[in-house]
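Re: weekly structure request thread

Next one in the queue (669 aa):
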Amino acid sequence: MINANKEKLGAFFSGQVQYVVPFYQRSYVWKEENWEALWDSIWNIYEDAGEDPQSKTEHFIGTLITKQRPAEQLGENKYDVIDGQQRLTTIALLLKAMAVSSTGELTHLGQILNELLSFGDARGHKHLRIVHSRIDAGYFNAIINQEGLIGLENPDHLMNLAFEFFKNKLEDLDDPKMDLLRQVVLNRVPVVSMLLSAEDDEQVIFDTINSLGVKLTTAELLKNHIFREEELQDLYNAYWLPMFEEDEDQINFWNKEKTAGRVIRTNVEILLYCYLVIKTRTEVKLETLFKEYKRWLGEKNVSERKDFLIELHRYAETYLNFPADEELTEIAFADGEERFFHVIENLEITTVLPLVLYIYNTIIDSRQRQEMVVLLESYLVRRNVCRYTTKNYNNLFVEIIRALAKVSSIENRPIDKNDLLTILSAYEEETNVFPDDRAFAEGFAISALTNKNAKEILYCIALKQKEDPNADVQKLNGAGLSVEHIMPRKWEQNWKLNDMTEEGKAERNKKLRTLGNLTLVTKRLNSKMQNAKWDDKKPELRRYSSLEMTTHYLDNDIWDENAIGNRAEDLMKIALEIWPRTATVSQPYISPPIKAPNKTKLVKRSKTKLPRGCFVDGKHYENANEAIKALVIVGKIPKKVVPTTSYNAHQWLLNHSAKYGLRYSRDED
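Done, posted below.
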C-alpha cells in the first residue's frame, strides 16, 4: 500500500487523473435510500456553512480504495476503483445535476462543474474523469456528456434515476447557493482514501470489506477473485459476460431472489451452489459459498480454472432454460417438465436443484430426463403429503448425486430412471423413505397440510382432471385460485352439531383440514362464502366453479366426515395416477409445443433454443446441441470443437458434418 489517509473529494475531481471501474466490478446498485442519505449528509453541512462561513463541519462518507494501473502511455495517470465506485459515481452524478441546474447567474459555474467531470490532454482530446464498463458505461457517458438516453434500453436505469433525483433536489437553488454547495461537496465531504500499489493484492481488500459487512454477493466476490488473473480475463467476454451480464434483463434474472431451503437467495447464488455441490459431491453451505469456491479453485491450476469458467457457462445455460416465472403461470398436465418445476417452486423444495441440474447435464435424451423428473416429483410429493421432514434434504440430494455418479462410473453407461428408482426405493428412514401407496393413502386421509402445499397438490389433481384430448382448454392458471374448506374451519356457526361430543368435535376439526375437505376456488368466491352452511355454499359453487374436484360433489345432500373421507379416496386414486411409485411416466409423453421466449430471458432463450429438432445418421435429437453432446460421448467428434450455443452448434453441423462422416439434417428439411 502506498498510503491511506483522509482526503477531500475535490482531490478525486482534479488534474489529469482518471478512475476506471474494472469490468469485473458490480454494476451501479445505489437506490433512493442511498441517494437520500448522501444528500441529507451534504445538506446538513451546507446549512452549517451558510449560517457560519467559518464552520469546519465535515461528514465522512466512507472509504475509497484505488489501485495504480500500469501506464500504457508516457504521462498516463489511471487508477482502478477497488471499492467506493458507488459513492464516487453518485458524487459525479450530483455534480452533473448541479452543472445542468445552474441558471447562468454565475457565468462560469456550469463550466467549472463540468470540468470536474472530464479533462483534456495536450492533443485536445477529452477524457471522462470516471470510466465505467459494461452496461453502466452507456448510461453514465450519456448523462455526463448530455447526449440523452436515445438508443439505450432502460430510461429507468439507476444512474438516470439518481441524476433526476438530484436535479429535483436542486430546483430551488440559485447560482450563488449552488456554488456554495459545490465548495461543500469538494471540501467538506472527505473520504478515507487508500491507494494501493500495482503489486498489492486487491482480493485481500475484497475479503476484508466483505467480512466487515459490505454486501458483496457471492457472484461479485467470485468474479473479482477469478478475473484478477490476466490469463483468465479473455474468458470474461467469452463466457461470463454473455451469460450473466449481457443486458439488463439477464442481470435482473440472475439477481432475482427465490427461496433456497430456509433462506432467500438469488438465482446466480443458487446456480453457483448447485455447480459446486455437483463437482465436489459434498454438502456446501450457502452462507460460506465464496470461501468454499476460493478453497476449491485454489487447488486448481490456470488451465483447470479456465475449464471451470467454460463448464459454468454450460451449466448456467441449462439453469437459464429451466421453466420459470411466466412459463409456469398457466400449464397443462401434459407439460411434465413445467409441472415438475411448478411443484418444486410452490412446495419450496429448491434444495433439489443440484440433483436436477446434475440430471439435465448428464442425460442427453430429453425423454429420459422427463421420466426422471416425473419420478422425482412423485418422491417429493408423496413425502410432502405424508408430512415427512425436509430437514435432511441438502444431504439427501448430494447422496443421490454420489450414488448416480457411482452407477455411471462402475457400469460405464449413462444413468436412467431405473437407477434413480433403485436408489430411492432402498431408503427406509423417515428422513429419506419413498412412501408406498399405503402410506400415501394414509397421508391423504389424515395429513393437515399448509394451505400453500395443499393448493399445489390440488392444482396438480385439477390439471389431471382437465386432461381431456377433446377439450378446448386443458391449461389452468393457478394464480387466482385459493384453498377453500368445503366444511369451514368455523363450522359450528352454521353446521349442525347433532349432539356431537367433544371427541366428535375434535375429530371433525382434524378431518376438515385434510385434502378430502379442501378444494380450489377463486379468491373472490372464497371470501364471499366464508363460513356459509352447505345448502348456501352449493349454489355459489355450482354457479362459479368449473373444476371437477368441486362440481362432482355438489349433488351431496350432506357434507360431513363420511363425505370428506369418500372424496379423499376419489382424489387419492387420481393422485396415484399422477405420482406412481414406479419409473414409468404416468402420462403419454408429449413433446411440449414451441413457446414464445420468456421476456426475462429473451436474449439467451432466443440464442440457445432451436425451433425444431434434428437428425444425425438417422437418429433424432431435440436440437443440434444435444446431438453434439451425444457425438462427443461416443467419440465421433472431438470435445474441444463443441460450440457453446445451440445456434452455433447447428451452423457447425451444417458446415462440418461431412468432415466427420456424419449425415445431418433438421426436422422437415
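The chain has 28 helices and 17 strands. Residues 210-214, 585-612 have pLDDT under 50 and may be disordered.
Next request, please.
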